[in-house]
């Protein structure tokens, strides 16, 4: 990670001493008076990913973010013997390291209750509902891929693990209102489609050999949701975001919310209750899996840091 620090002159020596004293930091550069707004000195460094969270925590303790800037950028290629030594000295493996500040920013970005988020949730639930009533698993999978619901769940998990009240409450609000928008969108769409003669109540209550799993709670579905939560947390925290697509299409939260809306529109209480239970189980197990993954990662980092301190004691 490339670290850029803008700090007032009175903090510069402490910042430089902190960076030079960390074995996971290399290539420290100091440019005095280079910063104009906020005024101060500019400090640059390359930091092993495994050491980044610790370094940023120490900078925060010094009060740098409150009076200046701490910025991180992912670097794909660095040719430096000093960086190689820093990576070797840092605890753990780069691919497994969690930069908690980076994860907070990612989860926080997904926590924003925007019009775009609510519209995507509504559209995804409508697609999922249509997939169920027409017994088309392709549409169900497409709905799960469109739905942006994992972001708020990740924020919830982060808030629990890091004891961040703001992240937890933000994630809870986005989760509740997001699924609420999805249910409302599916309800309105079901009424319109019935009015246009495209679907009726029979399409919902008849057996769906390929899509019944969406709104019929089962033990295997709960297991899949738990594993998806683990995979989602790991992919977000270690920058392996390519795995998120698989996470999104492996659980049935979005189509279940869509069925809840359609069942309410058609007055089918049993199906509405069944789909709501499926939604609650999936959301709960995703959250449990994500929290478990983050706790294990945090524990692994603490162990690696203690082992490093013993090595250099």
Automatic annotation (TrEMBL):
Keyword terms, alphabetized: Membrane, Transmembrane, Transmembrane helix
The UniProt record lists the keyword RNA-binding: no
Membrane spanning residue stretches: 113-133, 139-160, 172-193, 213-236, 243-267, 279-300
UniProt keyword Iron present: no
Protein name: DUF389 domain-containing protein
Biological source species: Luteimicrobium xylanilyticum
């Amino acid at each position: 990670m490339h670290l850029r620090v803008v700090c007032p002159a009175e903090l510069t020596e402490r910042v430089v001493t902190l960076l030079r004293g960390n074995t996971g930091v290399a290539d420290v550069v100091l440019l005095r008076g280079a910063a104009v707004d906020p005024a101060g000195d500019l400090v640059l460094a390359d930091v092993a990913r495994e050491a980044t969270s610790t370094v940023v925590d120490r900078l925060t303790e010094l009060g740098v973010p409150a009076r200046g800037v701490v910025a991180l950028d992912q670097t794909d290629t660095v040719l430096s013997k000093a960086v190689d030594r820093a990576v070797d000295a840092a605890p753990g493996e780069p691919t497994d390291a969690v930069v908690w500040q980076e994860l907070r920013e990612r989860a926080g970005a997904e926590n924003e209750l925007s019009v775009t988020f609510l519209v995507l949730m509504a559209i995804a639930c409508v697609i999922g509902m249509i997939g169920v009533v027409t017994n088309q698993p392709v549409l169900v999978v497409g709905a799960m891929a469109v739905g942006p619901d994992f972001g708020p769940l990740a924020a919830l998990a982060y808030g629990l693990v890091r004891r961040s009240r703001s992240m937890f409450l933000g994630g809870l609000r986005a989760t509740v209102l997001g699924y609420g928008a999805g249910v409302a969108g599916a309800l309105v769409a079901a009424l319109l489609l019935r009015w246009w003669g495209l679907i009726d109540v029979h399409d919902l209550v008849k057996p769906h050999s390929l899509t019944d799993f969406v709104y019929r709670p089962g033990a295997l579905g709960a297991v899949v949701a738990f594993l998806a939560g683990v995979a989602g947390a790991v992919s977000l925290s270690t920058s392996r975001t390519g795995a998120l697509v698989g996470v999104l299409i492996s659980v049935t939260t979005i189509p279940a919310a869509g069925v809840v809306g359609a069942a309410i529109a058609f007055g089918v209480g049993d199906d509405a209750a069944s789909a709501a239970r499926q939604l609650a189980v999936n959301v709960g197990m995703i959250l449990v899996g994500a929290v478990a993954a983050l706790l294990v990662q945090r524990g692994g980092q603490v162990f690696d840091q203690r082992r490093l301190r013993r090595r250099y004691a």
